[in-house]
Amino acid sequence: MLGSVPQELMAQEYSVQLTFREQWMDERLKFNDYNGKMKYLTLTEANRVWMPDLFFSNEKEGHFHNIIMPNVYIRIFPNGLVLYSIRISLTLSCPMNLKLYPLDRQTCSLRMVSYGWTTDDLVFLWKEGDPVQVVKNLHLPRFTLEKFLTDYCNSKTNTGEYSCLKVDLLFKREFSYYLIQIYIPCCMLVIVSWVSFWLDQSAVPARVSLGVTTLLTMATQTSGINASLPPVSYTKAIDVWTGVCLTFVFGALLEFALVNYASRSDTHRDDMSKKCDLERTVSMDVGDYEDGPNSFNMVRSNSTIIVVLLVLHQVSCTRDDKQGYRYGYQSYPRPSRPSPGGRQFGENYGWAYHRGEGYWYHPESMWRWRPNNGWRQYPRRNNNNHNYNNNYNYH
Questions:
Q1: What parts of the sequence cross the membrane (predicted)?
Q2: For residue 276, which phi and psi values (nearest 5 degrees)?
Q3: Three-state secondary structure call for residue 95
Q4: Which among 172, 166, 175, 143 is positioned nearest to 5, based on CA atoms?
């Protein structure tokens, strides 16, 4: 008869408190019952009669109960039948397979084997009809005893075959405890890490603090779970769950890093675009360029702005003498077609920039080449109000 059955995961064992009974026939102990007046004799000292050498093969430790009196009795019936009963507490080994933990089922055995008598002298048999009884109010904190099975497990050694009995106890782990203690907290941590998606991308301290805090909390939760389990070489179901949750939390933190990097890159690109647009606007407002190779209108008081404009041109624009002059996002290649009249200009022409449009020109013949109009000749103008600066006007 089984009492309480608590289990320990770390030690791979379980404890059981039971009342053990066995009976055998010993014809030497027959006596006269005086016509049914004496039903049986009772003894409290087991060493007064012969007893089978039974032991529990998977026992780690055990003890008898002696409060207030020793919890043991022996009954001898008139036909020589002996009934032995004792209350004992045992700690038994129970190797567990934790691959499905905490959704697993475990089978723990209770083995009873003859120590010295072989099957030629002693054979153990289960009692017919309900050999194992379980108390009705059996309550386990994390498990449910689904069923139990009785079987034989005779063992053969070099000294002979020994009789063996076993009871297989099938336990189902209660999931509600792990749902409250593990699964719901992990889900909450993942959801909290996703809160950073709704924060402003410029709130760097808040998003970093939230991501790092949830990541460290999830790592601590995982360490606490593994600390209560024995170290095994295979992956458990709880490891997959915590690993996925940890990946989601880390992914949220990594997402912020990528978004922040992309945001800074876009901001830098927009700043450069605005800078080039500002340069174009300033160049259009500084002076009124005239149609001539070396002539443009400019008030002398704006010379300082032109110097600044030249510096901006040198910083933000690049020039390739062989390919053309690039400004911002536009590039005009050097024309290779012959000039009107069949004469080649060669390298003796320069570059001018006027109102957002660049053109090549030949300073001697006043021929100009624009991307849209091609080669055209303009008359030379002399105007005292214009300031001719070949060093700035062409490169």
A1: 175-199, 240-262
A2: -65, -40
A3: coil
A4: 143
